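Most newcomers find our protein records easier to grasp once they have seen one. Sequence and backbone structure share a record, each on its own labelled line. Nothing more is needed to start thinking about how sequence determines fold. As an example, a complete record with its sequence and its structure tokens follows.
=====
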Amino acid sequence: MMHFTLGGGAAGKSKAAHARSASEPCHCQCHHVHTRLDAGIRSLGAWSASATCSGVNDGPSGLARVDAVLAVLGEFLALPQAAAALREDAAAYDRILDGSLALADAYGSFEPALLALKQSAAELRAGVRRGDGAMVAESLRARKRAEKELCHLAAAMGHASRHAFPSPADGEVIGVVAEVAAATASASEAIFLRCAAMSPDVSAVAHTVSSNAWLTRLRVVSAAKKAVPLPLPETATATVAAALEGLERRIGEVESWSEKVFRSLLHTRVSLLNIHNTPTL
């Protein structure tokens, strides 16, 4: 993690020392905010590593950490020292602006993908209860489309975490903001992949039997045969329906947190644009 200071060389240290003597509370605030930001980045990185290595499917927890880090970043961007430093490096600042837009766009697309995933689970549950094979088949296709979109968003976030933001060497403040953005993108990659893996339990059953047998059990029958297959046993239907209902609840929790993160990303972008539009005194 980076260690934030305000001074540069000897002249910078002299100016910083003079500024501290004149406005010590401001420097204490800056140090306090950066300490919290540093802790948030470490927490987010640890969660990302855990989610990637162990396959922990805890999207709400990851999103809560992202939202917490973005909240502290907002405090950091409100500091006069941070705003001044960002304005000094136009090229790096533009990259951060572009990166913030990429993050906001990703979460703007994440919400409809989640909604499609939740709707497909609801329709699959309804299809299983009714023994409607056509409805089941269509809901499974819809789920696959949503999973594909989530994987696409995850790949974009993985690329952004490695290439979209300036290097910490580009400057202390620029580096801090870029580190937050890169950690957010990396965590988002893990979150999106975990959501894509939130498949209903019926998929596991489908892979253990032949496609024809599975479709027959779900009453998906060739129109030419016009056979009337047996419905699923009542106990099996209830079990699958309960699992799908639980999946809908989990997706709903992720959806709620994703909305919070999206709003926080929009606030971050507004803060960055305000810094850009505020003239240097």
